[in-house]
Write a structure and sequence with these properties.
Two copies of one chain form a homodimer. By secondary structure, chain A is α+β, with helices and mostly antiparallel strands. Chain A contains 15 helices and 20 strands. In chain A, the strands form four sheets. In chain A, strands 12, 13, 14, 15, 16, 17, 18, 19 and 20 form a nine-stranded antiparallel sheet that branches. In chain A, strands 5-6-10-8-9 form a five-stranded antiparallel sheet. In chain A, strands 1-2-4-3 form a four-stranded mixed sheet. Chains A and B meet through strand 9, strand 11, helix 6, helix 9 and strand 17 of A and strand 9, strand 11, helix 6, helix 9 and strand 17 of B.
């Protein structure tokens, strides 16, 4: 940034947060500048405040010396940019040390947290209190920040899957260092702050989501009461062509409240990359994976063209009726509709060996994939999906996975469509076409995020250690964004730097800039 | 406003919308300046644009001649200010002529409307198409604007009761005359605009709710699919003391999704004022109504201290299970838990006369009150609750009710509290104390608006034709706001002019002012 005095800023930050909390060593900065795709933005320093007043001071210092800052909570925004700031020369404001759980209410079902609080931390907190509340977890990692994911509008798989929709009562440090609270939170002692989103007067929460108007230093998240009974369901659809009927069959059940959570529908590539790494040997090094070899995997691993999962929550009678309605709706549209509860899962684990001897199906391997997905539907965080970022690597994922460090290439494109089969087909078609032509596997998931929307994630996984792949992948990502946008499908979340490629409309941009 | 050139503005508005759509006649202006409580704000003109581009031109004219404008949709913001602007000298921008239904989707369940579209109009539209979708209706009047109510964050009684939460895709004319769309609407041809709230980047919708940052000229409202089966429930609680247990018993059912809509709990005064006008003769002209006379009405009309209603939506089996759970939860906490469906209601109407002869209970009168409430839970608009604004009048409500014209005094105070019995008791206690001491009847309803919140409406009804009552009522309203705020209960919606009384926090106000 023109006129930025980095040295002065760094010196003053050190006096605010202590020199040990201002990182300027080259290896650490380079690590922070490294995401899962090519980015050119340099980071002059990482500043780690311990509390809100240090954040305020840090912002004042940033202002005084004209240094832009980019807040991160856990820095695990994989597929969209990891820790890398949206523009060059931003200091990272790393909020990871602010990891207090500030408030909790078992009856009203909420928890108030700082940005450094992770999914695993909340899970442990709830377990420690023998709480009857469930959190909602995103699939990325147990070490992801709850606030970070919510402000980016990430999602999970319980009835509280739309994260931003289940938050309120934000505390924000504004660019000049002042503190603001949203909703009723601005009235000291307001009883409804942690439970009511709207407050009175204009609603400002949305301004601080996917934005750089302020640093969110506190947020209340709502938690769902554990149901009396939980049952997951799984199904497959053998042919690609079955997708639209499947989506259209699920919609009425979602809209009438029978299905309260997000059904998740993944294509064969998505499931395969969760199970295995790229079959370099069997493909003799050829990419992309397609044709007979892919058919072979489908058959061997019992993967459908589309593979669905979801869950039912309620009393036993409520779940039973939902199961009846789901069976009825999916009849003739899917194969292998299975229902699984805690008892069945326990049995399956116990008898997996026997089962394989009898049927030849490696149930243990299936369970290894199935269990994390099952857990996610109960809000339990998992590291498992992270392994798929190693899809194209030549070595297996290490025990301590770190896609940024390990040169895993990953770009996520996340178009949102109306919850209607015809749109699902079109998005899948575009993604398959663009990615396969560019030499990548189109791993696609479609999540029925709300009653009316499909949130699609198209993963573009590659190996950053292969020269030329970064450029190829990025070109493919932009072509995909463009092709989807031309058909009216826009992404709910963009990788750092992609905002300008979206052809922002004039007035909206003007309003944003004036804020 | 300093430097406003009203004459020039009015002349130019006339050239934009046609002279017949600029109202400056004194009787019409006086009517528009008249709400259900004392207001001093003068209106120089009423301007009635026919479409968005006329709104844009009107805003440009307003800017040029420095005349503030106050948009109204149907002007039925009764209890909060009717058509009266929030400050003096504002021209009314009456959007009533913009009454087109612009888009509709039966499968995805939405309708896109202009601000002049009323509840009755949407109801007729849906009926005309034999749609299987239900709207959600607020209780005020069939002629209320859908957009007007949603931007003010009004509510109704179906699962879509929180109106603002079920909208997206706003089109807004900004103060300088530019047009902006929220969510994905800013991308031409975006398929998910009418179904997905958040779009990409910062979310701006909330800025245009309860605000004066722009004129909402279009909005998409979500509509719920009609359930296979509908059943309403009603109950009473004979003693005041039963309230907290009742609220606490309902909360888990609401939080776990068994009850999907807002239960509505009204005190004896609220029910009585829906049934009758003030008993001037029986009370020998004394106010407020209390003591033995109130006890007599309770007994005679079978009114509880608290009276609840709500509904169950689903398949027959889903409703049956919900009914079982509700019975179990309310056991020993309420009296006369009754379930009513279309067939039972029909039977009751048919045999009301016989029933009265057998039991002495005037079922017909009960049904007259019950039917509109029953309808509201199915989203059917009704004029019925409007009659209660005539509570303190000496003459019965006319066939064409108009509380503004008829000198009905009404001030609504609407504190929001956590969905917890202890808060319900405190709010009820404060309201009863403040209103009775001031000589008014504390008519209170508590709506379980969301899983975690009670939205209370305290109605202060009086007769504006009695000298001194306006002042007495306003003093009482401000005392009530103040007493509630001191205990941490803030209103979600304020009467025009009351915002300044709320003691706005500095930073929040600064941010709002900078926008």
């Amino acid at each position: 940034m023109h006129g930025s005095d980095y040295d002065s800023a760094i010196r003053h930050w050190a006096s605010v947060v202590g020199p040990e909390n201002v990182v300027t060593s080259t290896p650490q900065l380079i690590a922070a500048e490294t995401g899962t795709f090519a980015t050119g933005h340099r980071i002059p320093a990482i500043v780690r405040p311990a509390n809100r007043s240090e954040v305020q001071e840090c912002m004042r210092v940033a202002n005084r010396w004209n240094v832009p800052v980019y807040p991160i909570s856990s820095g695990r925004n994989w597929g969209y940019g990891s820790r890398v700031p949206a523009s060059d020369g931003c200091a990272l404001l790393d909020l990871g040390r602010m990891n207090q759980i500030l408030d909790f209410d078992e009856n009203l079902g909420y928890v108030t947290v700082e940005p450094g609080v992770t999914q695993a931390q909340l899970q442990a907190f709830l377990a420690g209190r023998q709480s009857r509340l469930w959190m909602d977890s995103t699939g990325a990692s147990p070490h992801c920040s709850l606030i970070g994911n919510a402000v980016e509008r990430g999602f999970g798989h319980t009835p509280y899957g739309d994260h931003f929709a289940h938050t309120c009562d934000l505390e924000i440090v504004l660019p000049q260092g002042e503190v603001m609270e949203t909703g009723f939170g601005r009235y000291p002692g307001a009883k409804a702050s942690p439970v009511y989103r709207w407050g009175v007067g204009p609603i400002l929460d949305g301004l601080f989501s996917q934005s750089n108007y302020g640093v969110v230093t506190r947020m209340t998240l709502w938690l769902m009461p554990a149901p009396e009974y939980f049952q997951a369901y799984y199904f497959k659809c053998a042919s690609e062509e079955g997708l639209p009927d499947l989506i259209d069959a699920l919609r009425p059940l979602r809209m009438n409240g029978t299905i309260r959570s997000s059904s998740h529908i993944a294509n064969d590539y998505k499931v395969l990359s969760a199970l295995e790494q790229y079959p370099w040997a069997q493909s003799a090094g050829q990419t992309p994976l397609a044709g007979p070899l892919m058919q072979k995997f489908r058959k061997e691993l019992r993967i459908g063209a589309w593979n669905g999962s979801g869950a039912l929550y309620g009393t036993r009678a409520q779940v039973k009726e939902a199961r009846r309605l789901l069976r009825e709706a999916l009849k003739g549209k899917v194969q292998d509709l299975q229902f699984l509860d805690d008892r069945k899962l326990e049995m399956a684990s116990r008898y997996a060996g026997l089962y394989q001897r009898l049927t030849g199906w490696n149930l243990r391997r299936t369970l290894a994939v199935l269990r994390p997905v099952y857990g996610l539907m109960k809000g339990i965080p998992t590291e498992h999906p992270l392994a798929s970022t190693y899809w194209r690597k030549r070595t297996p994922p290490p025990a301590q996975m770190d896609p940024d460090r390990d040169g895993c290439g990953l770009l996520w494109c996340s178009p949102v469509a109306p919850n209607d089969g015809s749109h699902a087909v079109r998005i899948s078609g575009i993604a398959s076409d663009v990615l396969l032509r560019a030499g990548f596997e189109p791993a696609i998931s479609m999540t029925v995020l709300t009653d009316r929307t499909l949130s699609c994630i198209i993963s573009l996984a590659y190996d950053r250690d292969i020269p030329g792949e970064d450029e190829k992948a990025m070109a493919c990502y932009y072509e995909l964004l463009d092709r989807l946008a031309r058909d009216g499908y826009h992404s709910y979340r963009l990788s750092v730097g992609a905002m300008s490629a979206m052809g922002e409309d004039g007035v909206y941009r003007d309003v944003l800039q004036s804020l």
